[in-house]
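Ticket #4471: structure export looks truncated?
Reporter: QA, pipeline team
Priority: medium

Steps to reproduce: submit the single chain below to the structure queue and open the exported record.
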Amino acid sequence: MGGVRVLLVDDEPLFLAALTALFEHDDRIDVVGTASGADAVELVGACRPDVALVDLGMPGIDGFELTRRLVAADPAPRVVAVSGHADGERAREAGASEFLLKGGLHSEIADTIVAVSDESRETGA
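Actual output as written to the record:
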């Protein structure tokens, strides 16, 4: 382990499993936890991710509120928001560093996670 520490947050177990399996073969990324909603805030302290990949369309707590809570957490991960809808502006207003449409290529998701983490390290945030 030595890549970007990532927390995956989505209410779809198949999506979480698929991303986890894909990232197992990417030396740049270490999945340190998965969550299905509000429990992500509690996991941040335990697994200390650099980046949280957050689905915006979850039942219960939506991804926008969850993003606000994650970026206010201590330690606060950077958030990459994903959705099947064009909610990028709202995601950024909630505090997401980046937004991707669900269904994007694994390489696009991985590259974005690494870029967000690198940006965080450069700015010291």
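Status: closed, not a bug. The export was complete when the record was re-opened. Leaving a note from the reviewer for reference: The helical segments are 13-23, 39-47, 63-72, 88-94, 106-123.
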